[in-house]
Amino acid sequence: MFLLFIGALNRSLDDSIAKIQSELPSTKDPLIPRITEEVPSLRTDSGGSGTRKKTFMVIGINTAFSSRKRRDSIRETWMPQGTKLHRLEQEKGIIVRFMIGHSAISNSILDRAIDSEDAQHNDILRLDHVEGYHELTAKTKAFFSLAVAKWDAEFYVKIDDDVHVNLGTLAATLARHRLKPRVYIGCMKSGPVLYQKSVKYHEPEFWKFGETGNKYFRHATGQIYAISKELATYVANNRPILHKYANEDVSLGAWLIGLEVEHIDDRNLCCGTPPECEWKAQAGNVCVASFDWSCSGICKSVERIKQVHAKCSESPATLWGALI
């Protein structure tokens, strides 16, 4: 009798489990996200096909359709051109590209102008992204995703197109951290969460950061920052579900704060324009990057970047003699 009772009990449990399973949504339902596939671990493969070229760092200079003069001012100062740009890639493993997406209208005059510019300079990386004023966070994700797919780099760097950069000094700075698997390098800050709708950089989701008047967690300022290969791969792999806050630099900080990441606060990545970076250069402490905090970049950069370059640039030997 006891064995019959146990058998009946097992059949009853089996029937209950089957009923519950039949009521659950199917994993094949397209509306149900398959989280196990969308959120992989910190893989270091790109997930794409083909062989990626190994290199030291990939730099994406964020730019817009309307910023042709800014791009040309960078080409005339700190970014090598033509055969020198090719040599920089081959000899030093440093990839430098202006990154830009597409317009909302297919094959628009804006897109054709960028295509023509790229044919001339061969220094533009087109992203799977529709350009828009409030879409910088999505653009940053698109940059890391494409850069990781194309190049197997040790570091991935984002720079704004109104910042002066010394590439050799940047390379030497990053090289000091190349043995660290998950490193996030920049000028770390923690500004107030702006809840007023009328102000620039307003954060609609301010309530997520605590009481009114709270500050953001530490994150690198958006003018220039670098992340190591494993972190860039993490962003690329998890692109569909990484939340976008109002500000791109805050968003990146949010994506990384829950991981085992070493934050490097390096103030040489946020020097002021002359006389600050000039004094440091004269003292032998050349800045990685220079800009004006009041403008979130070099104020009137098209007109002034040549002056900054003349006063604050590294010697050519710093870049071409760098041991990377």
TrEMBL record:
PANTHER family: BETA-1,3-N-ACETYLGLUCOSAMINYLTRANSFERASE, HEXOSYLTRANSFERASE. InterPro entries: Glyco_trans_31. The keyword Coiled coil does not apply. It comes from Solanum lycopersicum. GO terms for cellular component: Golgi membrane. The keyword Cell division does not apply. It comes from the Eukaryota. Belongs to the glycosyltransferase 31 family. It is a single-pass type II membrane protein. Pathway: Protein modification; protein glycosylation. This is Hexosyltransferase. It holds the Pfam family Galactosyl_T. GO terms for molecular function: beta-1,3-galactosyltransferase activity. It is found in: Golgi apparatus membrane. Keywords: Glycosyltransferase, Golgi apparatus, Manganese, Membrane, Signal-anchor, Transferase, Transmembrane, Transmembrane helix. Its EC number is 2.4.1.-. Its cofactor is Mn(2+).
